């Protein structure tokens, strides 16, 4: 059965889905996207993702293509039509179709929206097999990384560099300061040499990750201390443990960076516990989705 996409008000087979060549998302990257994990038929941290979608749209002065209630119905219908209960949903909103010109259309046009979903392997159960390697890479992105835009070329180049070195992620850093920002497509965390769980504070340099936020809420509820405090490449090199979070990585241990082991090169006790905590959040959290 062909996968079904929602495109500007219609549910169509993906091979037949199309957008206008003058869609501003295609020509200018003038759009916003979200990726949401679907587990057991429920969208995990759905409200966090929709809140971030609306915030990103506001930041680029683009209206929601429909009400939140209507969008929720579309998300569920896309999953139902594709018979997917464990997967990843992708939604993208652009400024729509207009004659190519850099300023916004003088006469506003309807935003364009595309929603797709695909199956993914089951949620990981063995944290020791979930560990991965990373590389460090200069952060070449624009100055508003807090907005989840479809402008991802620097991220793609960083991820490609990681792949070519046999790694799963690129840890981005500011070349001027040596401070770590985040992963190319993830939030990045360490357990520093003093045993403190740390991730960079929110600012324009990083995306406010939904999985990051959800994990922080779980840590607070469990009484586990953490700090939103930036760290340098030097501090990274001394870290006891490291991990990434995202809607696709969940809590993923990073056991090697630039070919060197993190700590003893094995999944550490802190990340092991956080992996278990987040697994409970995903698998037991009816609060995640309606």
Which features characterize this protein?
290 residues, D-amino Acid Aminotransferase, Chain A, domain 1, D-amino Acid Aminotransferase, Chain A, domain 2, 2 domains, 9-stranded mixed sheet, 6-stranded antiparallel sheet, disordered C terminus
Strand count: 15
Q: How many DSSP H or I helices?
A: 7
As for the number of domains, it is 2
CATH level-two architecture of the largest domain: Alpha-Beta Barrel
CATH superfamily of the largest domain: D-amino Acid Aminotransferase, subunit A, domain 2
Q: Percentage of helical residues?
A: 25-40%
Which structural class fits the helix and strand makeup? alpha+beta
Which strand-content bin applies to the residues?
A: 25-35%
Q: What fold name goes in the CATH topology slot of the largest domain? A: D-amino Acid Aminotransferase, Chain A, domain 2
The sequence of SSEs as H and E is EEHEEHHEEEHEEEEHEHEEEH
- Rounded mean pLDDT is 96
Largest sheet: 9 strands, mixed
Q: What is the CA-based Rg, rounded?
A: 19 Å
What would you say about this model in short?
It is an enzyme of class 2 (transferase). The protein is an alpha+beta fold and 290 residues long. Helices cover 28% and strands 27% of the residues.
Q: How does this model look, in words?
A:
With about 290 residues, the chain is an alpha+beta fold. It has two domains: about 5-120, 2-Layer Sandwich (D-amino Acid Aminotransferase, Chain A, domain 1); about 125-290, D-amino Acid Aminotransferase, Chain A, domain 2. It has seven helices and 15 strands. It has helices spanning about 25-30, 45-60, 70-80, 155-165, 210-220, 235, 270-285; strands at about 5, 10-15, 30-40, 40-45, 85-95, 110-120, 130-140, 170-175, 180-185, 185-190, 195-200, 225-230, 240-245, 250-255, 260. The strands form two sheets. Strands 7, 8, 9, 10, 11, 12, 13, 14 and 15 form a nine-stranded mixed sheet that branches. It has a six-stranded antiparallel sheet with strand order 2-1-6-5-3-4. α5 packs across α7. Mean pLDDT is about 95; it is low at about 285-290. It catalyses: L-isoleucine + 2-oxoglutarate = (S)-3-methyl-2-oxopentanoate + L-glutamate; L-leucine + 2-oxoglutarate = 4-methyl-2-oxopentanoate + L-glutamate; L-valine + 2-oxoglutarate = 3-methyl-2-oxobutanoate + L-glutamate.
